[in-house]
């Protein structure tokens, strides 16, 4: 099982580093923005009651997923601002289970609006023009907590930290949006409320 997890970890890191190095800032921003739009589309028409319904005991509701992505995205935008300025972000990395607790008490429309605002903040950070260009990767890195599932590892996720430049860190945000889009789609399918 450990070998399968190491293989998936290496595959993910290779993908992030290779793809990130090949994308300039505008193309990277476009990919992150597209993934954010796909995530938002997965929420369209979802009723508050369904957003707060527990589908599988011990797993997040859609509302908790939205809260997690919003909180993580706000932090990611801040960390990218530090990387852009050539500084290592202060504090601990954004961890994989970040929740604010708002998912249980804030109206659903406010949770969705919070996600939209977080995505707008990330997009504004990626719209900045003072990033190093292709072939000029910044030496400054930030730790990112990554999660991979190795099919041969018994379904247990492999959670690890990796040091990434701003390009890799931005690309991880795209993957984060897409992973949670898939999670929301699966939850909606189980609730029988397709997007």
Describe this protein's structure.
The chain has helices at residues 2-22, 25-43, 48-51, 62-84, 108-127, 166-191; strands at 142-149, 157-164. With 195 residues, the chain is mostly helical. It has one domain: dinb family like domain (Four Helix Bundle (Hemerythrin (Met), subunit A)). α2 runs antiparallel to α5 (108-127).
Provide a concise account of the structure shown.
Helix 1 (2-22) crosses helix 6, helix 2 (25-43) runs antiparallel to helix 5 (108-127) and helix 2 packs parallel to helix 6.
Give the name of the CATH superfamily. dinb family like domain
Assess the beta-strand content as a share of residues. Answer: 5-15%
What's the level 1 CATH class? Mainly Alpha
Number of helices: 6
Helix and strand succession? HHHHHEEH
Average the pLDDT over all residues and give the rounded result: 89
Summing up helix and strand content along with how strands pair, one would put the structural category as: mainly alpha
Distance between the termini: 35 Å
Q: Outline the biggest β-sheet.
A: 2 strands, antiparallel
CATH topology: Four Helix Bundle (Hemerythrin (Met), subunit A)
Q: How many extended strands?
A: 2
Task: Just name the CATH architecture.
Answer: Up-down Bundle
The order of strands across the largest sheet is 1-2
Give the C-alpha Rg: 17 Å
Topology summary:
Layout: H1 2-22, H2 25-43, H3 48-51, H4 62-84, H5 108-127, E1 142-149, E2 157-164, H6 166-191
Antiparallel strand pairs: 1-2
Helix pairs in contact: 1-6, 2-5, 2-6, 4-5, 4-6
Q: Any descriptors?
A:
mainly alpha, Four Helix Bundle (Hemerythrin (Met), subunit A), 6 helices
């Amino acid at each position: 099982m450990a070998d399968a997890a190491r293989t998936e970890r290496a595959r993910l890191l290779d993908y992030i580093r290779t793809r990130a190095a090949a994308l300039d800032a505008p193309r990277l921003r476009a990919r992150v923005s597209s993934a954010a739009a796909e995530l938002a589309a997965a929420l369209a028409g979802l009723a508050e009651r369904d957003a707060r319904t527990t589908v599988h005991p011990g797993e997040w509701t859609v509302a908790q997923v939205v809260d997690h992505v919003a909180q993580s995205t706000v932090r990611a935008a801040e960390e990218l601002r530090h990387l852009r300025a050539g500084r290592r972000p202060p504090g601990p990395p954004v961890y994989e289970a970040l929740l604010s607790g708002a998912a249980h008490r804030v109206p659903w429309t406010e949770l969705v609006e919070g996600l939209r605002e977080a995505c707008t903040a990330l997009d504004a950070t990626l719209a900045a023009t003072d990033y190093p260009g292709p072939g000029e990767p910044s030496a400054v890195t930030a730790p990112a907590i990554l999660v991979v599932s190795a099919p041969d590892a018994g379904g247990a996720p492999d959670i690890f930290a990796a040091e990434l430049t701003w390009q890799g860190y931005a690309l991880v945000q795209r993957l984060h949006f897409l992973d949670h889009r898939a999670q929301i789609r699966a939850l909606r399918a189980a609730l029988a409320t397709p997007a």
